[in-house]
Specification:
The protein is mostly helical. It has one domain. Helix content is about 85%, strand content about 0%. The longest helix has about 60 residues. It is rod-shaped and about 100 Å long.
């Protein structure tokens, strides 16, 4: 009886181990996908920021060439 219980306990431990490994693998995959999405979003934001910086620079250049213009553009 004791051997049967030990076999069952060992089987149960291995079974749990496999389940945990599968869950960890799935979680790792999910985290990698999320990281990839966040990296893509970061790259989009960088692109938007560089365009905004370019527009601000152009606006400042225009203000410098039109010295008589009051602030606010009107």
């Amino acid at each position: 009886m004791k051997k049967t219980m030990e076999k069952f306990a060992n089987w149960f431990i291995e079974h749990d181990k496999h389940i945990m490994e599968a869950r960890l693998k799935q979680e790792k995959h999910t985290l990698k996908k999320e990281l990839h999405l966040l990296e893509n979003e970061r790259d989009k934001m960088r692109s938007h920021l560089s365009r905004i910086d370019a527009l601000i620079e152009k606006q400042e250049e225009l203000k410098a060439t039109l010295p008589g213009k009051p602030e606010g553009g009107v």
